[in-house]
Write a structure and sequence with these properties.
The chain is mostly helical and 457 residues long. 83% of the residues lie in helices and 0% in strands.
Length: 457
């Protein structure tokens, strides 16, 4: 139950020098983004409370089943987001209100149609992990979550953050409240967790649909939109396919080789680092448009230097907020685990594992900053190439280590694959800088030559 990164609507940039544009980067921190941060905080808070409640209450192997389904749902959601939500977000910026109403209605219908293959894939996955009886509820939770997320992103694309906050509170905080009541009544289990997800997603979707004023679209309009969105989102979907390897395959390998309980312990550790999620997403929200602003005049060496300073500025600010928390986890990992899970014996003795997880979280922050910088420079294919490097490292290193060493192998391999992504991002950015310097070196003599001829005459 974690929200994906926010896609950015199209915006117009005005050509200007890097020196004059760079100060404008600070203007990206508009007050509306504070509301966006609050909204993302509500989403993350609801997810965090939900996961902690389930980790505390369920048997660790049952929590592992929930985590396995959740990983698969997040992957399938990323495919729906690439094919529908990303194109919708881009197109909404240039639409009037009536077009937005019809477009969002068509996207909800396309989401329901896409739910047939995606739901079938999730049901088959449930059979493979030995939880076929839970799959139907997981499919319902996934489908209605995707519908609500489609309407939510429509509001975010229109910068209606305060209106989105209402439905998101119903969905994410609502599911946490329902699960809290189920835990209090000793009735919480994995199927009821997905039923709560589905019910609150439906309620939130109704509210956000009324806010948008969703209108139905005809079959021809839906078909044309589906074709158009496919052309726009297919490459994003291709990039998101790497998550099948880096997330679903890793957790599945851990479950098959060391049991569902190992997956449950891994998910319990990840809950302690979820506090970084809204900050990382918000940093991407800030860095991409800020870098795009300073690079509006091209990718000359001064422009790249300005883009690097902007990305570093926001990255250091984010790190300053997270380093104290990371330090506490590194120094007192046992106390943190005991406090969050009330001393449950299944989660004790994982101090070293938590320290490795902190290193992974720091690496994820670095990768997010660097990838956002490349995306802001309109080099998204290079970001995708770095993801492919990470997926290759996962196949070669992470999955074998997971099979042989279990949770410790998964954590060590994840750290290696994230380091590979960081290295690839650094090399790709240096390549952009090298090309920019080479192009500027070629252009400068051409600019000087006419003046030199005049001097000789």
């Amino acid at each position: 139950m974690s929200a994906g990164p926010i896609e950015f609507p199209g915006f117009r940039t005005v050509a200007r020098s890097a020196q004059s544009a760079e100060p404008r980067a600070a203007e990206i921190g508009h007050p509306r983004l504070r509301v966006a941060l609050i909204d993302q905080g509500v989403v993350s808070c609801g997810n965090f409370v939900t996961n902690v409640l389930l980790a505390r209450w369920l048997a660790v192997d049952q929590y592992g089943v929930f985590a396995l389904f959740l990983d698969a749902i997040l992957f399938l959601n990323s495919l729906q987001a690439a094919l529908l939500i990303y194109p919708l977000t881009v197109r909404c910026a240039s639409m009037d209100e009536n077009q937005v109403r019809r477009c969002s209605g068509a996207c909800v219908l396309l989401t329901l149609l896409l739910a047939i293959p995606l739901g079938t894939a999730l049901a088959v996955y449930g059979f493979f992990i030995g939880a076929a009886s839970v799959a139907i509820w997981a499919v319902l939770g996934q489908t209605f979550w995707q519908c609500q997320e489609t309407l939510r992103r429509t509001l975010l694309a229109r910068r209606s953050y305060s209106r989105a906050l209402v439905g998101d509170s119903i969905s994410y905080l609502g599911q946490a409240v329902i699960l809290g009541l189920l835990v209090f009544g000793h009735k919480a289990d994995v199927p009821r967790a997905f039923i709560a997800m589905a019910a609150t997603s439906v309620a939130a979707a109704v509210v956000q649909g009324v806010q948008i004023g969703v209108q139905p679209a005809g079959p021809k309009a839906v078909l044309r939109m589906g074709q158009s969105f496919w052309l726009l989102g297919r490459w994003v979907m291709t990039a998101n396919l790497t998550y099948l390897i880096t997330s679903v395959c890793c957790s599945y390998a851990l479950a098959r080789s060391h049991g569902n309980a190992a997956v449950g312990r891994y998910a319990a550790l990840s809950n302690l680092l979820r506090i970084a999620n809204p900050l990382v997403i918000t940093l991407s929200t800030l860095i991409v448009p800020a870098v795009a602003l300073v690079s509006a005049s091209g990718t000359s060496p001064p422009t790249l230097s300005a883009a690097w300073r902007v990305a570093r500025h926001y990255g250091l600010r984010g790190a300053a907020l997270l380093v104290p928390y990371w330090a506490l986890l590194m120094l007192f990992p046992g106390h943190a685990i005991t406090l969050l899970y009330c001393g449950r014996s299944e989660y004790l003795g994982m101090e070293t594992d938590l320290r490795i997880f902190v290193c992974i979280s720091a690496m994820v922050l670095i990768n997010a900053v660097m990838a956002s910088m490349l995306n802001g420079l309109r080099r998204s294919r290079r970001s995708m190439a770095a993801q492919l490097v990470g997926a290759a490292a996962c196949v070669v290193v992470t999955i074998p280590l997971t099979i042989y060493f279990g949770l410790e192998g998964l954590l060590a391999g994840t750290l290696v694959s994230n380091a590979a992504i960081a290295g690839a991002l650094a090399i790709l950015f240096l390549d952009v800088a090298h090309r920019a310097h080479a192009e500027s070196a070629v252009k400068e003599p051409r600019q000087i030559l006419p003046a030199a001829k005049v001097a000789l005459v």
